[in-house]
Amino acid sequence: MIDYDEHIDEELRQMNEDGSSNGKRSNEAFHLDDPIASVKLKKPIMTSGDTSVAACLELMKDERIGCLLITEQDKLVGIFTERDIIRRIVGKNLSHADIDVNDYMTYDPDTLTSDSPLAFALNFMVVGGYRHVPIVDENNQPVACLSIKDIVKHIGNHYFREIANLPPTPKNPGWATVDGG
User: Fold this and answer.
1) In a shared domain, residues 93 and 147
2) I need a surface site. Which of 78, 82, 98, 153 has the fewest CB within 10 A?
3) Residue 178 lies in a domain
4) 46 with 70: CB under 8 angstroms?
5) Residue 139 maps to a domain
6) Hey, which residues does 71 pair with through a beta bridge?
């Protein structure tokens, strides 16, 4: 019989020696007061408000992202998300090529800076129902866009060993459903 814990521990040891593992050691604790800068963030994808919704949809699809930051003169003025598409555009028989994003984006979104604690971002996401929070500098210029997926990945990296060492199937098979997660 295979000892899964020993097998996974050996693979993790080899990955750590090779430097190919993104997983952190479990003695590096995750804290809600860690700054947003501790999360690996990508450069934000931005466009101007006079961009057509069709072009925005294409950009979001190509970049595989759920939102665009809308800027004027390099300053954040809005955010355009998948939720804006669903709530404000879908089912209205609009030509996406003929409408501009500034008519359907969310103006003046809540923002944080990269030195803000992760707890603030989570608060915005839970209380405000946001999936994305723009991260700006002191001049209101976007530096990143933090998503709930980024936070989950960050937490997962801190608890990599614990997650990787879980048994192959959950103890409670009632958790898995055909309807998804």
Assistant:
1) yes
2) 98
3) no
4) yes
5) yes
6) 76
pLDDT digits (tens, 9 = 90+) for 92-118: 888 888 889 999 999 999 999 999 999
Task: Report the sign of the C-alpha dihedral through residues 152, 59, 80, 88, in that order.
Answer: negative
How far is Cα 45 from Cα 51, in angstroms, rounded to an integer?
13
**The one-letter amino acid at 98:** D
Q: What is the 3-state secondary structure (H, E, C) of the chain?
A: CCCHHHHHHHHHHHHHHHCCCCCCCCCCCCCCCCEHHHCCCCCCCEECCCCEHHHHHHHHHHHCCCEEEEEECCEEEEEEEHHHHHHHHCCCCCCCCCCEHHHCCEECCCCECCCCEHHHHHHHHHHHCCCEEEEECCCCCEEEEEEHHHHHHHHHHHCHHHHHCCCCCCCCHHHCCCCCC
pTM over 0.85: no
User: What's the CATH code of the domain at 99?
Assistant: 3.10.580.10
The string of pLDDT tens digits covering residues 118-130 is 999 999 999 999 9
Closest CA to 52 of 65, 64, 70: 70
Tokens linked to 175: 């958790």
Domain of residue 9 covers 4-30+159-168
